[in-house]
Amino acid sequence: MFKNIIQEIDSIIERDPAAGGRLGVIFLYPSFHVMVFYKIANIFWRYNLKFISRLIMHLARIFTGIEIHPAAKIGSNFFMDHGFGIVIGETAEIGENVTIYQDVTLGGIMPSVESDLQRNQKRHPTIGNNVIIGSGAQILGPINVGDNARVGANSVVSKDVPPDVTVAGIPAREFTKSSSPIKFEAYAISKNEVDPREKTLNLLIKKVETLEKKIKKIETVNKKKIT
To answer: Cβ contacts of residue 123 below 8 Å, gap of 6+?
Structure first.
């Protein structure tokens, strides 16, 4: 267990240049604190001591500003950078080496409509391994976000995201797809990535400009012939 804790602390240091060292993570990082609460609460939840489990996570939310349901399934080396305002729902599942930023919601799509019918149902997202989710992103409903995917800041995702894909926008749409392992990029969007719609529009504009030049040349030739 101690070895796993050290591994998780080191994984935070690898992903956050502001981390000064292991002691800094232990004493100063809400992500580390809330995961300690979660691991204890999750044990109580699995033994059906649900009130105690929820109480522990309620205290954790007051202490860290991060809300995690104790029934959520979270893999190893999970890091919430800054963390404040993150909400992770009851049936959410998170893989290994996942990084998310502040104000991210892994939520349901109809939390207050026909709540009785939604109990004991999968309502929240499943996040694959090595996923990066930018600040303010809202990932809603029982959808899947594939391994190595990236979600841009402030995106709203309500459909499945394939593996190795970067999505962004409202609603989120695909920007790029990588055939090789994606290098870690803070906030999930690389400076080199271009919106494919913008790229297509630029190509169309260039084609229109080329056609206009050809038309002008033809008009000029026809005028000379007439005169």
So the answer is: 89, 90, 91, 108, 109, 111, 141, 142
As given in the structure block, the two tokens for residue 34 are: 């809330």
Q: Is 115 exposed, middle or buried (0-12, 13-18, 19+ CB in 10 A)?
A: exposed
User: Looking at residue 173, what DSSP letter applies?
Assistant: E
Check residue 180 and give its pLDDT: 58
- Cβ neighbors of 43 (< 8 A, separation 6 or more) are none
Helix (H) or strand (E) holding 57: helix 50-64
Nearest alpha carbon to residue 72 among 36, 113, 106, 100 = 106
Specify the pLDDT at position 195.
63
pTM of the model: 0.78
SS3 55: helix
109 to 35, 104, 114: CA distances (angstroms): 25, 15, 12
The predicted structure's pLDDT at residue 177? 77
Assigned token pair, 21: 């060292």
* 3-state DSSP assignment of residue 133: strand
**Residue 127, phi then psi, degrees to nearest 5:** -105, 130
d(CA 31, CA 65): 10
Residue with tokens 């800041």: 153
- Can you tell me whether residue 126 is helix, strand or coil? strand
Q: Quick one: tokens of 53?
A: 């489990």
Residue ranges, the chain, pLDDT below 70: 1-2, 111-116, 179-197, 199-200, 226-227
For β-strands 173-177 and 165-168, DSSP reports them as antiparallel
